Amino acid sequence: MIRSILQVLAVLTIFTSNFFVITSEVNAQGSRLREENVKKSPNSLLEYISERRVVGFADSPRLNLLSAEQVSFEENVEDQVEQVLFEDSVQLQSNSTYGLELFPDSLLYHSYMAGEKEPRFASQWLWEKERGRVWEAALGGRWGIFRKGTPGPNGEGFQFDVEGAGLVRIDPEQDSDLEAADFRAGFIGTWKRGQYRWKCGYYHLSSHVGDEFLDNNPGFDRRNYVRDALLVGVMYDVTPELAVYGEYAYAANANGGAEPGEIQLGVEYSALRPVWLKGAPFAAINGHLREEFDYGGSVNVLAGWQWIGPRSGHSFRFGVQHYNGPSMQYSFFDQYESLTGLGIWFDY
Predict the structure, then answer these.
(1) Which of 276, 87, 279 is nearest to 79 (CA)?
(2) How many helices (H) and strands (E) does the chain have?
(3) Consecutive 10-residue runs of the chain (348 residues): their mean pLDDT?
(4) Between the CA of residue 192 and those of 98, 120, 183, 197, what are the distances in Å?
């Protein structure tokens, strides 16, 4: 199982690398076209400025003041805008104060895109060849309580977060009965410096079977799957758009078939520059290895389109998903699933 996960990780890495090259070439061609056309009308300049606003530059002071009258059309407009962005980025960094912030809007260490048990808002409409339609949903998230560091989604320092979510499964084949639900809650300390992010903390996860499912399956052997785990994780930003990570968790209290050890490994690609409809592509893969399966486990792959809030870093994504491994609902952890479908995800 580990070998297959490593193979999938290698394939995704090659895919994201090629995809990054292709999108870079497309953006370069788009820049040349804008350079040819941006001098034709004031509207085209304003459209270019709006399009060029990527995460981290939304509050660029001078860029917000740029207008067609203030730009010399005798020169290269694109070069002028890029210069403003560069100078303002330096200014914003130098003006960022290292201090205490209560209830920060953004996170220093975000939830893993393809982590199937991460707290977030989500809805996935999936298909399993043995049973048909499956509806997975999540209601929750992770919120910052305080930060000691610099502000914004690209800030640095230390932040304390709390998290919680209900991760439910609804069976569309059985009158949309609630089949099962896993509940997660915890707290996490996170750090960010340069290209590195770290986290450590605690989470509780427990599984529960729906009443309708028990009524329809009176012989079902219900297990009280529980994990009370301490975790440590690290994420490295290879580029501003590509990250790799690893996490280990140890459950001091593990019941109902759970065993202490758990490992997550993954790769994420998240384009920052808007490409179409002010959004950009994303792709992610997560390998989840658990001791109860002799450190075998599951692979979850996502790809699609996303929109990122420039001030908060919050993201909304739409895309395709393929999950392969033990059931995503831990009440059925000893059952194998292969799920494919569509989903939407919102992360803080």
Answers:
(1) 87
(2) 5, 13
(3) 46 46 45 44 47 43 46 48 50 65 94 96 94 95 95 92 96 90 97 96 95 85 92 96 97 94 97 83 97 95 93 92 96 94 95
(4) 13, 21, 28, 4
How distant, in Å, are the alpha carbons of 43, 85, 324 from that of 124? 40, 38, 15
Give 283's strand partners.
269, 303
* CA–CA gap between residue 87 and residue 108 (Å, rounded): 24
Between CA 227 and CA 290 the distance in angstroms is 12
Phi, psi (degrees; rounded to nearest 5) at 172: -65, -20
Pull the structure tokens for residue 79. Answer: 């070069």
Beta bridge partners of 259: none
Tell me, what's the pLDDT at 211?
Answer: 85
Element (H, E) at 52: helix 42-52
Whether residue 86 contacts residue 52, with contact meaning beta carbons closer than 8 Å, is answered with no
Ordered domains of the chain (ranges, CATH): 2-95 (no CATH), 100-347 (2.40.230.10)
First to last CA, the chain: 32
Task: Look up the pTM and report it.
Answer: 0.73
Task: Please give the C-alpha separations between residue 55 and each of 70, 83, 270, 271, 333, in angstroms, as whole numbers.
Answer: 24, 17, 11, 10, 39
Residue 341 pLDDT: 97
Cβ atoms of residues 284 and 13 within 8 Å? no
pLDDT of residue 313: 86
- Give the C-alpha separation, 219 to 327, whole Å: 19
